[in-house]
């Protein structure tokens, strides 16, 4: 979801910004996996900190990717398997392994690296006919979560 505002303070100063967020439940960030070992998680959260070794590691699977795709709101903008409008973002059914034309006139091969970049830095390579409106999930989704979403998108081309 996008919340944009353009207001003036009591002193007349203009304040304009856009905030992106989702109403969906995103999995808790793993600070250790993100290379922030100095973060004192006890001071940040109510619960007790758990080391990476103690955390239950979830597998990278297309099934998990599908759940994350739905929970993080991707399905609201990208059509898959006949679901969703796909008007804000390009449809993803059958896209893996194809070449896509970009706004800048170049082409990109849709592979794991491109999907990962599109999730974490979506404004870098925008598909022709679409705007750079997708929010970044950098720092929101773990490496394994991005890999699972990638597996899900790949699975849409193998059926």
Separation, N- and C-terminal Cα atoms: 30 Å
Q: Output the helix-strand order.
A: EEHHEEHH
Q: Determine the CATH topology.
A: Cytochrome Bc1 Complex, Chain D, domain 2
- The CATH superfamily label reads Cytochrome c-like domain
The count of domains is 1
Spans with pLDDT under 50 lasting ≥5 residues?
Answer: 41-55
Count, helices:
4
In the CATH hierarchy, the architecture is: Orthogonal Bundle
Strand order of the largest sheet: 1-2
Helical content class: 10-25%
Strand content: 5-15%
What would the average pLDDT be, to the nearest integer?
80
Major β-sheet profile: 2 strands, antiparallel
Q: How many strands appear in the DSSP assignment?
A: 4
Radius of gyration: 18 Å
Structural class label: alpha+beta
Question: What would CATH call the class?
Answer: Mainly Alpha
- The best one-word shape is globular
Short characterization:
The chain is of the alpha+beta class and 159 residues long. It has four helices and four strands; from the N terminus they run ββααββαα. It has a two-stranded antiparallel sheet with strand order 1-2. It has a two-stranded antiparallel ribbon with strand order 3-4.
